[in-house]
Design a protein that fits this description.
Elements (H helix, E strand, L loop, with lengths): L1 H16 L11 E5 L4 E5 L14 E5 H10 L8 H11 L1 E3 L11 H6 L3 E5 L2 H7 L4 H10 L5 E4 L6 H12 L3 H5 L2 E5 L3 E6 L2 H19 L10 E5 L2 E4 L2 H10 L3 H6 L4 H12 L5 E3 L6 E3 L3 H23 L9 H8 L2 H13 L2
Parallel strand pairs: 6-7
Antiparallel strand pairs: 1-2, 1-5, 2-3, 3-4, 5-8, 7-8, 9-10, 10-12, 11-12
Helix pairs in contact: 5-13, 12-13
Length: 349
């Protein structure tokens, strides 16, 4: 049973992970519950496409995590974010010999169904990052007889898990047994199901329905990097060049339009750091990455998705919804993301 579940995890990760319009860099996550206590989930810092039966995931005792959220008393003045991360780390049963962590989102994976796909689909995020998006996607899915759970923006971690748990608990018993579709504002898409094939099919269907309603045709742009040396790469992705040229993009642009956490982690933090890994030449419109190929690729994919979402929102005449200043500051100081960036750096040496 456990072997079958791990094989399903690998297959799901590989299938979703090969689509850079669904996940970028180390973003997104997939989990499979192996039995009544154990759950396999992609490890923080890994790409979905890096998950194999031997590595790239963590096995946790999710019953302990779920029990924590079932019984936590939020009236106390605790640091619940830190406490919940500690609970997740202490729940790890494999691997025991290194410092891999489950995603900070392991909480909501624990309280959802057997199979959970969390993607950063650009199509879902066009709507998740626009004021009109909720009404549009609710109408699109309701026409197909699909119910949507829309989650207002909440910082990833403890409070987001509690909100998702609360929303699931309000469903009637019949709906609790069905597969669930959740869109998190300024974040991404979640598919939760007790059926392996259904989880994958619904994820594909939701994305295709959104694309059809928005009139998005043709292939998603491909990324291309030119190697200058071992620690320097240039973007040769045409879509990125054209966007920068048309918008006259400077670093200020990214602060003005903070759309979702992965943008802040992969782009903004690397633009404004003392050892900046991203250079945008205002004259040539070129983007240069001063880092390894693996990290440059993760940033390039994130940059492409970010520009693509903004262009589509504007093309459709929608209104961009950005994160609040408090939310962006929270992510910038997020210990879990510091860990993820550190791990990515170690993996790409």
């Amino acid at each position: 049973m456990k072997s079958k579940g791990l094989l399903e995890l690998v297959r799901m990760c590989q299938r979703i992970g090969k689509r850079i319009d669904y996940v970028q860099g180390g973003g997104g996550n997939i989990s499979v519950k192996l039995d009544s206590t154990l759950m396999a989930i992609k490890a923080s810092g890994f790409r979905l496409s890096q998950v194999t039966k031997q590595e790239g995931y963590v096995i946790v005792d999710y019953s302990k995590i779920k029990n924590y959220y079932d019984n936590v008393d939020t009236s106390g003045g605790y640091d619940f974010e830190k406490e919940s991360v500690d609970v997740a780390i202490k729940s790890i049963v494999w691997p025991t010999e290194n410092v891999l962590r489950p995603s900070v989102e392991v909480g909501f994976h624990s309280v959802l169904d057997k199979y959970v796909i969390h993607s950063h689909s650009v199509y879902a995020n066009i709507l998740a990052c626009s004021y009109e998006g909720k009404e549009i996607v609710q109408k699109v899915l309701s026409e197909e007889g699909i119910n949507l759970i829309w989650i207002p923006y909440i910082n990833p971690g403890f409070w987001l898990t509690l909100e998702i748990k609360k929303r699931i608990s309000t469903l009637d018993e019949k709906d609790k047994e069905k597969s669930k579709i959740l869109i998190m504002e300024n974040h991404g898409l979640i598919i939760s199901s007790n059926v392996y094939k259904e989880a994958l099919e619904i994820h594909e269907k939701v994305n295709n329905l959104i694309k059809k309603r928005l009139g998005i045709k043709g292939r998603y742009p491909t990324v291309k990097l030119e190697k200058i040396d071992e620690k320097k790469y240039k973007s040769r992705t045409r879509f990125i060049y054209d966007f920068i040229a048309s918008k006259n993009v400077t670093p200020v642009f990214f602060e003005k339009y903070s759309l979702y956490p992965d943008q802040l982690v992969y782009i903004n933090s690397n633009l404004y750091a003392d050892d900046s890994k991203i250079e945008i030449n205002a004259k040539s419109k070129e983007v240069t990455y001063n880092t390894t190929y693996s990290e440059a690729l993760a940033i390039e994919e994130t940059l492409l998705a970010y520009f693509y979402v903004i262009e589509q929102i504007e093309k459709l005449g929608l209104t961009i919804k950005t994160m609040t200043e408090d939310s962006t500051n929270y992510i910038k100081n997020w210990e879990s993301e510091e860990y993820r960036k550190k791990l990515i750096k170690e993996m790409t040496k």
